[in-house]
Write a structure and sequence with these properties.
The chain is mostly beta strands and 288 residues long. 8% of the residues lie in helices and 17% in strands. The chain has 2 domains: 109 residues, Macroglobulin (MG2) domain (Immunoglobulin-like), CATH 2.60.40; 138 residues, Pectate Lyase C-like, CATH 2.160.20. Strand 2 and strand 3 form a beta hairpin.
């Protein structure tokens, strides 16, 4: 699914102190056309690999910095005068470890100034989830919300997300309980700590997905492709994994008590007890 060009309007214009501990800005709030100082505490610097500044409303990257062996405590960047918004993300192993603001973005100009140059674009209010609907034709507002907003901690319980493209997105600790993700494309998605209890993921493409500590109790994963997925310490109790593929997946510490494993492919997977499987993990489900 191609990401729609949308303008995000959010109420997340709070101070840096409340946005994310460990990162501070000077000036706060940031101002277009002025140098911006970004100070990162040592606890974050030691594990960080990359810092990225982006302008979500203009859909562009502003700057990117890769940390070396001795990263500086403060970094300075020039914000373009025509900047409309700002999001700052700190990465480690390709995963967002910190973000400013935690939900949304800094709005650097007035909404009426943003609307003019973008005729035909729609506004997505990331602080308000579109109402639920049972009609497939009425999913457009939800699709726009998902494509345009930050999805970490997203409240998507029970939502119809069938066949959506969420590849490479971050839904860290999102609430997806009882959601319908059948046939969704979710390659390399970040679902660490997400709540997926009772969710339907039949036929979904979760190749390389990160599901560490995810709650998948009672979830349906029939014919789901989980090749190379990270399922360490995930809860898969009573889940239906019939005909699913977990080839080369990491299930270290995962709980599969009561799970349905009919014709499940565990070739090359690391079983819950740490054993590398040749074909099946059936005899290696007990945790050490």
């Amino acid at each position: 699914m191609k990401r729609a060009r949308v303008a995000l309007v959010t109420l997340a214009l709070f101070s840096v102190a409340s946005a994310s501990a460990g990162i501070s800005l000077d000036p706060n709030p940031p101002e277009p056309g002025r140098p911006l100082g970004v100070t990162i505490e040592e606890t974050l610097r030691v594990s960080a690999e990359e810092l990225m500044l982006s302008d979500p409303l203009r859909e562009r990257e502003i700057a990117r910095f890769r940390f070396g062996r001795f990263p500086p405590a403060e970094l300075r960047f020039d914000l373009p005068e025509d900047s409309w918004s700002l999001t700052i993300e700190l990465f480690a192993d390709g995963v967002v470890m910190a973000r400013l603001p935690m939900d949304g973005m800094f709005l650097l100009t007035r909404p009426d100034e943003i609307a003019g140059p973008l005729p035909g674009d729609s506004f997505v209010h990331c602080d308000t989830l579109p109402p639920e609907t049972t009609a497939a034709d009425d999913r457009a507002p939800l699709i726009a919300w998902i494509e345009g907003c930050i999805l970490d901690h997203a409240p998507l319980r029970g939502r119809d997300l069938r066949a959506m493209d969420l590849s490479d997105r971050s839904l860290w600790r999102a609430d997806l309980r009882a959601a319908d993700l059948s046939d969704a494309r979710m390659r390399h998605v970040e679902l660490g700590g997400a709540s997926l209890a009772g969710a339907r993921l039949d036929g979904a493409d979760l190749v390389g997905a990160r599901l560490e500590l995810a709650d998948l109790q009672g979830a349906s994963l029939v014919v789901t492709d989980l090749d190379g997925a990270d399922l360490r310490n995930a809860d898969l109790r009573d889940a239906d994994l019939s005909h699913a593929s977990l080839s080369n997946a990491d299930l270290s510490g995962a709980r599969l008590q009561g799970a349905i494993l009919d014709d499940t492919d565990f070739t090359g997977a690391i079983c819950p007890d740490g054993t590398r499987s040749k074909h099946s993990c059936r005899n290696h489900l007990e945790l050490p």
